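RECORD TYPE: inverse folding
INPUT: structure tokens
STRUCTURE:
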């Protein structure tokens, strides 16, 4: 829901920028456009100069030399895992998890999650990410970091149904939803986070679905990430794939955000499409852990709601969604031996509207449009790597750097202005996160 503007003073006017916004069919491109913001809402996107009623603004941002884009949407991450960035790399998945990540995660404290998430939020804002979907624990701390930094997020408490304490975790997941769903003027939304089919047995998923139905929230899950996981599932469940199994349990009757979907069959893709399941594609992580290549072009063709995610910083190792869009385009061209696959406009779509649709937030974010939330980023188009100006969408995907993002507006608030964060002390965040991370690996 958004308030509707009935005239009156404009809070922010971006004037004379190159405006680019993805669409379902083709992107909107205004060589010289204006954007007006009132409160948390975008009230005008159109040619410059905007009509008179939008021109008296409290704050005017001169847009020449800048590209205005909708904020990027990171459809899957574990923000606090920034504390594990570079802590363990280049290892096989199970060894990495059992010898390094899980023992270290068992030592995590609430403050580690808070400062790790603060670091992640600073990193994402700098990279033009204005919304992220997160699954982890100590989620109250994550929510506090989201509240503090002004970013938008969809939060879920990760649930391992097969572990001791599963019911306590589910109770925490419920509390997170009750306390934070719709908080910060709607900037925070919540889901339940059953970790994966192989860690959540049927009776536990039934309890999760009961809570989801009671609270009216969706679910965030890891699905078909590795070949081994799919083989094991088919062996244990009468030949059913993880997608088929979750469908048979009725999970997809709820809004579901499924991370990875690397090893999915034609039948799986049909189910994902028919049930409107959101898929978070994490190509950087899938490549680094050597999980495989998700059939993204096929899923898009079948109408699946595909978006882009970075996954956690322990397996990526950054939260740079622009880089992820480039990796996705390169990966799928190579994998299909076809350079026309995942063209630049499509890669940009995945990082914005595609991810917004995967999170079911497309009515609020993902495009620059009147009536949507004012989540807007301004990117410098004057660097040497951005010239000549033949095709700026191509430059955004194939040539730009996340450091080209100069100004970030989220929910109508300027959270970064010309390269400087305005709402948090960045130096303090970096120092505190560094301190927590160093102590954590020695604990
Ligand atoms: Zn993940």
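DESIGNED SEQUENCE:
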């Amino acid at each position: 829901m958004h308030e509707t503007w009935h005239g009156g003073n404009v809070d922010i006017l971006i004037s004379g920028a190159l405006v680019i916004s993805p669409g379902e069919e083709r992107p909107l491109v205004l060589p010289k456009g204006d954007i007006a913001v009132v409160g948390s809402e975008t009230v005008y996107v159109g040619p410059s100069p905007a009509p008179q009623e939008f021109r008296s603004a409290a704050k005017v941002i001169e847009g020449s030399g800048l590209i205005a884009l909708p904020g990027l949407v990171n459809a899957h991450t574990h923000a606090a895992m920034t504390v594990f960035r570079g802590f363990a790399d280049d290892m096989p998945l199970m060894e990495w998890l059992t010898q390094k990540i899980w023992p270290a995660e068992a030592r995590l404290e609430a403050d580690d999650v808070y400062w790790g998430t603060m670091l992640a939020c600073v990193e994402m804002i700098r990279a033009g990410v204005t919304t992220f979907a997160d699954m982890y624990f100590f989620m109250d701390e994550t929510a506090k970091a989201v509240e503090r930094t002004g970013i938008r997020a969809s939060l879920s408490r990760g649930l391992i149904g097969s572990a001791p304490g599963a019911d306590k975790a589910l109770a925490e997941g419920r509390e997170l939803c009750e306390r934070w769903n719709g908080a910060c003027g709607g900037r925070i939304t919540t889901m339940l986070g059953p970790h994966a089919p192989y860690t959540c047995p049927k009776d536990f998923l039934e309890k999760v679905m009961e809570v989801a139905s009671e609270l009216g929230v969706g679910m965030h899950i890891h699905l078909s990430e590795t070949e081994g996981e799919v083989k094991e599932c088919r062996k244990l469940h009468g030949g059913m794939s993880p997608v088929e199994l979750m469908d048979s349990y009725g999970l997809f009757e709820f809004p579901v955000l499924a991370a990875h979907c690397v090893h999915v069959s034609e039948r799986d893709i049909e189910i994902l499409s028919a049930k409107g399941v959101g898929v978070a594609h994490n190509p950087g992580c899938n490549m680094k852990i050597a999980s495989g290549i998700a059939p993204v072009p096929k899923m898009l063709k079948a109408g699946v709601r595909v978006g882009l995610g970075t996954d956690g910083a322990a397996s990526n190792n950054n939260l740079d969604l622009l880089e992820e869009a480039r990796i996705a385009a390169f990966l799928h061209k190579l994998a299909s031996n076809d350079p026309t696959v995942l063209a630049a406009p499509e890669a940009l779509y995945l990082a914005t509207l595609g991810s917004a649709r995967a999170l079911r937030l497309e009515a609020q974010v993902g495009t620059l449009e009147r009536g949507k939330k004012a989540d807007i980023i301004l990117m410098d188009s004057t660097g040497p790597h951005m010239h000549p100006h033949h095709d700026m969408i191509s430059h955004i995907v194939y040539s730009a750097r996340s450091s080209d993002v100069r100004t970030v507006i989220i929910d109508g608030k300027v959270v970064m202005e010309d390269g400087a964060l305005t709402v948090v002390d960045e130096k303090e965040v970096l120092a505190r996160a560094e301190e927590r991370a160093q102590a954590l690996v020695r604990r």
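NOTES: The chain has a mean pLDDT of 96.
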